[in-house]
Each structure stands twice: as C-alpha cells, then as structure tokens.
Specification:
Blueprint (H helix, E strand, L loop, with lengths): L1 E5 L2 H11 L3 H15 L1 E2 L6 E2 L22 H15 L11 E3 L5 H9 L3 E3 L29 E7 L8 H11 E10 L10 E2 L1 E2 L13 E2 L5 E2 L9 E2 L2 E2 L3 H8 L2 E10 L13 E8 L1
Parallel strand pairs: 4-5, 4-6, 6-7
Antiparallel strand pairs: 1-14, 2-3, 7-15, 8-13, 9-10, 11-12, 14-15
Length: 281
C-alpha cells in the first residue's frame, strides 16, 4: 500500500509532475495484480477472490464492488483502520460514528461493523414517506447535539452541499475534541480553487436546479433516496477545501493519497483514491 499525506497544494504539485507519466502503467499493473490475486477486505482482513469482484466500466474508483463497498469505500476503511490501530479513535465497540447515509450498501457494512452507528438521509420534504423508515438530516444544519461523536464519515456528499462551509462547521460542532472527519468526493486535484457549478439562492429549495443560480450546465449524480431525480452538483472541491476546514474549526486537514491494489483501492485515471481527513480542535 502506498499511503501519502499532503497538507498543501505545492507539495502535491511536485508529486504530480513526477508521477503523472507513470499513472497509466500503474493502473494497468494494479488491475493485473487484482485479477491474479484478488483483494483483501480492509477491516476484516479476509481474502476476496477476483471472481467475486464486480467490475462495470473503466472508472475503477466507482467499481471493483464487493459486499457493498466500492474502491473509494475501501480507501475510507483503510484510513479508519489506521486510526483504530493507532488508538486515535475509540475501539470498535465504543466508537460513536455518524454517516449521512442510511440505505446504501456501505451503510449496511458500517452497521455490521460498528454497533454505535448513526445513519441518516437527506429528505427535506416533511411529507416524504421514507422519513418513516430512517431519519432525515441536513448536513448544513444538523439537529445533533454538540460534541456527541468520535467520527464522521462522508462519502461523495461535499459536491452536493448547497453550503459546504456551513456543513464543515456543523461537522466540527458535533465532533468531540480530537474527533475525526473522513470524506471522499470528486476532487479537482490539479487546482487550488473549487469549481463552482451552481449557487444556492436564499429561500430556494436546496438541490432544485430550477431554483439555483446555475453557472454551468446542471450536473446530477445518483441519489439513493430518489434515484429518479438525482442530486444536483453545486461544486467540485479543490485544495481550498483545506482552508475551509480550518476556518470551520477543524485542524490538520489533509488529502491522503491511497494506492492499494491488494485492498482493491484504485482510481480512474490515477492509481489511487484521494481521501480528505481532518480532526476537531
């Protein structure tokens, strides 16, 4: 496993210039290793045969599926595993964890591993019948108590948030001092400034393209609660995400570069998955 930690864009730029020409061959080599040897589940350390992996298309970050986990999920689990082994978060039985997803296969995996998991989905319509089955939370305006959690895991949500700085502040608020945020999202790794695709208008319904200020052609990603409509992309975060996290009350924000064929962690055009990690002050 290659695990690098970057706390600033200039250091990553140097790494990028040196390693970029090698990426295509590294991706192909990782695929050959996975095809030959299968992978190892990050938390249980059990072997998974190559035949048991689901593969659909060339975006390996979003495939290599096993037991509800994609490549990027396993990158998150590897970071989580390292925090557990280092004693930086409570043990599995005591760990109080929040994940703003409740009906996804990954949420089911977390539920099996962590007895104190709190999951939710975003359902702003009070009449939504699915509210009867699992709780609603707006990450930009959480109803959870202050300093009540050890860990927050966010998968592919930052790009859909209508107020990302507010969400980061809310995450910092609900974390206990020393608690961690682990997150993945589409990441503009070659630039400092976030790519803003849409802006939320005051009083508008979040996520509704017709009510947002669109700066580009509207883009939608899959929504597990309402797959028929998708979820509007407001931004693609870049390296200024680290400054936003610091301003929100999180310390030591960093981008973790994780390339781990033996664990089935592989990106699309890059041989790694990039994971954002920060800690509550």
């Amino acid at each position: 496993m290659e695990h690098r930690v970057f706390t600033e864009f200039p250091a990553f730029q140097i790494f990028l210039q040196r390693s970029l020409p090698l990426w295509p061959s590294q991706v192909q080599q990782a695929l050959r290793l996975i095809a030959l040897n299968g992978i190892v589940d990050p938390l249980t350390e059990t072997a998974v045969s190559a035949a048991s992996l689901g593969l659909a298309g060339a975006n390996y970050r979003e495939t290599l599926i096993h037991n509800g986990c994609l490549s990027r999920h396993r990158a998150v689990l590897l970071v989580l595993q390292e925090l557990l082994k280092a004693g930086r978060i409570p043990h599995v039985e005591q760990l109080e964890l929040y994940c703003p997803e409740a009906i996804t296969p990954f949420a089911s995996v977390l539920r099996q591993l962590f007895p104190n998991l709190l999951g939710s989905e975003y359902m702003p319509d009070r009449a939504d019948p699915q509210r009867k089955h699992f709780p609603h939370q707006d990450l930009c305006e959480l109803t959870l108590p202050q300093a009540c959690l050890d860990l927050v895991v966010c998968n592919e949500l930052f790009e859909h948030l209508y107020d990302l700085p507010a969400a980061l502040s809310e995450i910092a608020r609900i974390l206990r001092p020393g608690g961690f945020l682990i997150s993945t999202c589409p990441f503009a790794y070659d630039r400092i400034g976030t790519i803003v695709k849409a802006r939320h208008r005051p009083g508008a319904t979040p996520g509704v393209a017709s009510e947002a200020e669109l700066l580009m052609e509207p883009e939608f990603h899959g929504d597990p609660v309402h797959p028929e409509q998708g979820s509007l992309v407001y931004q693609i975060p870049a390296w200024d995400l680290l400054d936003q996290a610091r301003q929100a009350g999180l310390r030591d924000p960093a981008i973790h570069w994780i390339a781990a064929p033996s664990y089935g962690v592989l990106g699309q055009e890059l041989p790694a998955v990039m994971v954002f990690v920060a800690q509550r002050r």
